[in-house]
Amino acid sequence: MDRVTQLLSQMTLHQKIGQLVQYNANLFIRTSADITGPQAQLGLSNEDLAVSSSVLNFSCAKEVIAIQDAHLRDDPLKIPMVFMMDVIHGYRTIYPIPLGLACSFDPQLAEDCSVMAAKEASADGVQVTFTPMVDYVRDARWGRVMETAGEEPIVTSAMAKAQIKGFQGENMADPERLATCVKHYAGYGGAEAGRDYNLVELSMRELREYYLPAYKACIDAGAPLLMPSFNSLNGVPSVANSLLMKQILKDEWNFDGVVISDYNAIGELLSHGIAADAKEAAKLAFENGCDIEMCSSTYFHHIPQLLEEGAITMEQLDAAVARVLRLKEKLGLFEDPYHGADPEKAEKLFLCPEHRQVVRRAAAESAVLLKNEQVLPFPKDTKTVAVIGPFATEHGIKGFWSCQGRDEDTTTVAQGVENLLGADRVLTARGCGCLWDDTDISGIQEAVELAKKADRVILCLGEPQNYSGEGNCRTDLKLPGVQELLAQQVIAANANTVAVVFGGRPLDLSGLDAVAPAILYMWFPGTEGGNAAADLIFGLRNPCGKLTMSFPRSVGQCPIYYNHPNTGRPHWTAEYKHRGYASDYIDCATLPLYSFGHGLSYTTFEYSDLSVSSQELAENGTIQVRVQVKNTGDRAGKEVVQLYSRDPVASVVRPVQQLVDFRKISLEPGESQWVEFTVTEQMLRFWNMQDQHMTEPGEIRFMVGYADHFLLTQSINRI
Ligand code: BGC
Q1: The model scores a pTM over 0.90
Q2: What is the residue range of 140's domain?
Q3: What's the total number of domains in the chain?
């Protein structure tokens, strides 16, 4: 008999339910015997906690070891607890927010970052991370866009697969690795009006084409856990949505890993008005395949009765418990219940020079040079540099989900520049605040005086890091407070200014773009953000990030995304011109301010000779698409070569452009390289009205360049 079967044969019902719940650590480290606080609110007894077998968002090697020891001492079956946490963009050494990291278009970099985070987190007692988050997004109002890879499923899947590889390695029992959990299944990023937790209504075609592929890619890449999302999808919250949970996840995709609810999502079935009471909530979630209930207590209270009534069966219960036990086996917890947790090792790893190096590179490669009218790079012999603005000396640039990262460990832009030039050549002024009610303009004059005195100015602007992330949605995407006014006056005083912007989402930079000759978007870059900004500004590194999410000209354009379907009255010119009775606005251009795929470099690249290996592509066929790219500038640089397609005539309306594949290459000055893409017919498929995934005969166009701005085009015929 294998271990799991044997354990199941020995477990009481109470012990089985204990495997299917997850609570915060404060329930386990109570100092008194009284049942108070969250435990009382959840109606949990000490006996319930004694069998509860997983812990949410808690780490610290010493205490994890202590909790595990106490648990194993009291558990007659010696089933270890599992510790899970949101290690999203670093553990203690923090790398850029996922939306920033995606702009590197560099899966290897994402893998390197994940390997580093896994080492730190596992040494401190974490065994499972709730990452990757692969929600597809189009609306910058939603605060959680910062956790995503943006508006392109191919990029999202590529980055997520790399993260899974980095966190899990070959074997998640390795004490330096973690298990991953793909989330939030499904469609969470489609929240209506960009408001978190709001309903999501999507056609099956939208869902299958844009939203589902990345979750599927993660399952195929071996993510052993999946978290359903909070939102209702087409009327039913995910955790109770049989189409998502049974038909697609289990029947179509054969997912046999652990499903864990989001925080209190089963309890929230009552607020949704889907369950009349907690018992019905438990039944709905359980019968739809939710194995672990996070932070509500319907399973403890109602599974016994549901079993008695025959609403669920012992077979189903055993299958759910077996999935959890198997996860613990895969993690090697029965052999090493601490999974390598080691306080001394953790301390050595945190912020060590190698880890700082990884996140510095990641921060630099994630930054996107949005605009540069011959301002950057600044010469290293610049005599005096004024670092101005609310983010000049701000440590809070690590981003919302920065786990155990600390602001005080983070280098500011001013420090980064000082590290490079020496403190005596750097002047700083705050100018103004960055909260939306920061209307005080009294500091602007001092900033202007400083700008006049300095040879060059680095103007550090943005939104605070807690304006994005879970629950932090905005209806106004402009730079908060009086930052635009500060920018106007500082730039008027010194034209040698670069605006360095921090944000957790694409902000509306129309006002800034109108005055700033150069804009470098840093996202929230993490621990080494200030040093990375300095590296880029002074040309020690050449910017290479490209946007994975469109920057709107105004919040009124949201949702806005490059791969939008065509209309009967398209507005399709790069220059804005209101035509009347076209799909456009009378008061704003249709295209974004900066599109998907946009990002400048200090060098230039020339594309030529786009060619295809055949003029025809059959069903299940393959074709090679080649293009030559040359570095025509005088600096080494990296370019993200982007191949797009368009299906101009089909039985359903197709996107005006769609990324097929991408490749990031490095070129020395004068060097050229052939880039070859292997395109299969499957990669060009779409979902038709009959819910079939297919291509249709007819023209297919390939384009290279950047969304809304193609350099070369080639057509083939799908026969
Ligand atoms: C979030 C999840 C997260 C969970 C546990 C929830 O509020 O939606 O993304 O993994 O909390 O922290």
Answers
A1: yes
A2: 3-345
A3: 3
